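Record type: monomer structure entry
Structure origin: computed from sequence
Chain ID: A
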Amino acid sequence: MPKTVGILTGGGDCPGLNAVIRAVVRRAIPLGYDMIGILEGWRGALENNMERLNLDKVSGIIYRGGTILRTSRTNPLKRPNGLSIIKENLQINGIDFLVAIGGDDTQRVSDSLFQDGVPVVGVPKTIDNDLQGTDYCFGFDTAVSIATEAIDRLHSTAEAHNRVMVVEVMGRDTGWIAVASGMAGGADMILIPERPVDLHEVCRVLRKRHGRGKYFSIVVVAEGVKLPEAEKPADAGQPTDEFGHVRLGGVGDALAHEIEKRTGFETRVVTLGHVQRGGSPTAFDRILATRFGVAAMNLILEHNFGKMVALKGNEIVAIPLSEATKEPRRVTPELYDTAAVFFGSG
């Protein structure tokens, strides 16, 4: 009797998810495995919302954004008997092995299931690029490309109107997107959660540029940045999801208000928001996602469970799920210091 592999996508959507799904299915079915897609992440696993996958269903999806399986931020660990319900639904559908594609929250649930006896492997997914154990997560390159293009376009309008443009990008706990897109886009200041924010220093840099006859500036800020000197914290009164994360947004507005108040420079805000995670994945992300998908199925073939595939250098490796779910992988001081060389000097 053929074995069956279940696959789900959890957390926020991300360019490259469909490429992973396609790769797992294309690897598994010729080897005689059946495939079942679990719809809407852990919610589908709890509610027994699943469908059969075949080669036709994954044909032509490698370039599509989002996920054909849909997703949610459902946390089974907060549901009464959540893990037991998932295990029962996997058994009802004859699922022998599970591939879970997602970030740290998804992989914590995966690790809990593994500890409870479920043969599961993980695939790292987060545009924030902050998952431990892997040098890159697919989706990050696409997000950086989108943010960089936006910054490029904002240069001309900022210069035309002598404005400071604040660009808010994604990044809850880390500033990988902010640093990478800011560096690529020639930003004059980059603010990230890993570094304390000194608004006096930000304004000093902007005044210095204006003093040299540069009457416009680009400031990139990650959404998770705290502004201790601002009038109100950016996340005040915001609701949380099932994993306890505040729904971020607003730090760009708060920062722009402080800059204009302190310098007198006309300041505008562009919040890129979900546009960063939408649309077609870059070639890099399609290739990385495909490699991850094939490697995940290979772990199942090897019965090497409780692991997450990861990129180390240019090699795909497997690391314990428990390692992947440690604290977020932070922007390195070397990378930020390199970006800081150009603050206010353009």
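Annotation 1: The chain has two domains: 4-138+281-324, 144-276.
Annotation 2: The domain at 4-138+281-324 is CATH 3.40.50.450 (Rossmann fold).
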